[in-house]
């Protein structure tokens, strides 16, 4: 049992020293929870303008576009890569 605690302490120190790992273990899940909590909370009507540059007409590409269109909080815009990047830079896309 003593060996287990020493191993646990060594792993904890290693995690705390590596800032990138600390971000992925703590900050990223918190950010993820906040974003999805805001989207699916149901308390407010949030609407995100989302642009997709579907450069392929394949079934996978169409499935991704349809999945995003099914989310009520997203207003979908499709266009070329250049059009969508310009709209993003202009602040017309979330």
Index terms:
94 residues, mainly alpha, 2 domains, two-stranded parallel ribbon, 4 helices, 11% strand
Question: Can you offer a commentary on this structure?
Answer:
The structure is a single chain. The protein is mainly α. The protein folds into two domains: 1-45, no CATH class; 47-94. It is built from four helices and two strands. The protein has a two-stranded parallel ribbon. The longest helix is centred in the N-terminal third of the chain and has 21 residues, at 19-39. The model has no long low-confidence stretch (mean pLDDT 85).
Detail the topology: elements first, then pairings.
Blueprint: H1 2-17, H2 19-39, E1 48-52, H3 59-69, E2 74-78, H4 81-90
- How many separate helices? 4
| Envelope shape | elongated
Number of domains: 2
Largest β sheet strand count, sense and barrel closure: 2 strands, parallel
Order of strands, main sheet, comes to 1-2
The gist of it:
This protein is mainly alpha-helical and 94 residues long. It is built from four helices and two strands.
